[in-house]
Amino acid sequence: MSANLDIIKLSNAQIAWRAAQDIEDGAYVNLGIGFPEMVAKFQPEGREAVFHTENGVLGFGPAPAPGDEDWDLINAGKKAITLKPGSAFFHHADSFAMVRGGHLDVAILGAYQVAQNGDLANWSTGKGGVPAVGGAMDLVHGAKRVAVITDHVTKKGDPKLVQACTMPLTGVGCVTRVYTSLAVVDVEGGHFVLREKLPQISFADLQAVTGGELNTDGPVADLAVPEL
Amino acid sequence: MDKRIATLSDAVAPIKDGATIMIGGFGGSGAPIELIHALIDHGPKDLTIINNNAGNGHVGIAAMIEQNMVRKMICSFPRSADPRAFTERYLGGQIELDIVPQGTLAERIRAGGAGIPAFYTPTGYGTELAEGKHVEEFDGKHYVRERWLKADFALIKAEVGDTMGNLTYRMAARNFSPIMATAAAHTVAQVSSLVPPGGIDPEDVITPGIFVDGVTEVSNPQQEEALNRAEAVYP
User: Fold this and answer.
1) Total domains present in chain B
2) How much is the pLDDT for A4?
3) Within a domain: residue B198?
4) From the candidates A24, A37, A54, A188, which is the catalytic residue?
5) Above pLDDT 70, what percent of chain A?
6) Residue B172 is nearest to which of A55, A136, A137, comparing CB atoms?
7) GO molecular function of the protein, one example (chain A) (predicted)?
8) Measured between alpha carbons, how far is residue A84 from residues A48, A58, A71, A81 in Å?
């Protein structure tokens, strides 16, 4: 079945596109380093989100053209960014006051594992090496809505949506929605609640690659995403 | 009142072996490269360095680590494009690491500068970074108690400074510098442009001079990211 999943599953761009559709007009948004940064590219027409980066910029825009970088103007991933009209600079304590103080509407992060109680593991594989946490532990307890975008399973085919995280936690009970390569799943009351799934996969097959029990509390919509 | 320091070597001369030093910057943005390199020339050992990262390439903090000046790093993210200087010594047991969530690091520094010895934050609750720390419940939610963080010295980079120590910054290069300036016993800023009192509109001052002990002018300062992209090595 895993070969089959590889054919039907959404690309990273498509997962990012789906997550972007839920960002309301006027939202203040923090996107995690790497894959989540892609969400900014898919802002729906007519909606304006203001992007926050932990290192002290609000209202930044896309990367500049190669050669136009100013390395004093970067995001949390140390990548060059541009400014939009109405942007602001601030120091780190103010930046994390925005985070912990509940001023951000949405944070979208990557994950190693998400548990059915909303626990998130995304900072350490627990296998030694050099630990590095950055702002992830602050973000998961700050934003009003903490969403995860991820492949539904690991490269080896193991579930990333699990009953209980086995990897070191980033935060406890913090994730509210997961956008995967196969489905959109909410975390509610200590359970996974399936909201959308690719029409090509049956509920039973989706459950088979999900570590925790998938619940429904109404009709499950088709996860519909454009070719990107 | 005149806080000018004539040379970079004068600026770092008071820093002795065993000192704890906050160094401004997030990645290469805001890294006070000239002050760090002057500190390498001065050569104190056994230092504890507080920064968001743990050096990149072979300049700045990475170069300090390569000179075996650093005993301990307190940081949130000791990874970079080229983190070898830190990684090799960390895995070899020659350098200690205290990993702190980024927002907790910022707030610990802010608290240090504001005279608040401890505070509660939700960050890290239930994770291994909160092990052994006091937890308390407020309004049904769990919070971890964190201590303030202070330092003997802060070395920071600013854009315009006046001789009274008032500072402005350039874009995202501001990052940790304003809070570090408050939390160190002795703060030195390298400034791209040094002006007389009145040369900065009071409305534009980001760091008031009361937090700054010395300013030294480095016009056309080097930018760490640009140095690394040019594969620069110091010394």
Assistant:
1) 1
2) 81
3) yes
4) A54
5) 99
6) A55
7) CoA-transferase activity
8) 11, 9, 17, 10
Per-residue pLDDT of B121-164, as tens digits, reads: 999 999 999 999 999 999 999 999 999 999 999 999 999 999 99
**Does residue A54 carry a catalytic annotation?**
yes
Look at B225 and A135 and tell me if their CB atoms are within 8 Å.
no
Residue B3 lies in a domain: no
Q: Identify the domain containing residue B68 by its residue range.
A: 8-118+149-229
CB spacing of B171 vs A72 below 8 angstroms: yes
- In the predicted model, what is the mean pLDDT of residues A37-41? 95
Residues in chain B closer than 8 A to A142 (CB atoms): 103, 122
Q: Do B179 and A93 touch (CB under 8 A)?
A: yes
* pLDDT value of residue A195: 98
> Is pTM, for the whole model, over 0.95?
yes
Whether B77 shows a pLDDT value over 60: the answer reads yes
Q: Which chain B residues contact residue A100 at CB under 8 A?
A: 103, 107, 121-123
Query: What secondary structure letter does DSSP report for A65?
Result: P
Q: Kindly report the CATH number assigned to the domain that includes residue B207.
A: 3.40.1080.10
Query: What's the fold here for domain A5-218?
Result: Glutaconate Coenzyme A-transferase (3.40.1080)
- The amino acid sitting at B227 is L
pLDDT at A143 over 60: yes
Q: Do B102 and A170 touch (CB under 8 A)?
A: no
Summary mean pLDDT of chain A: 95
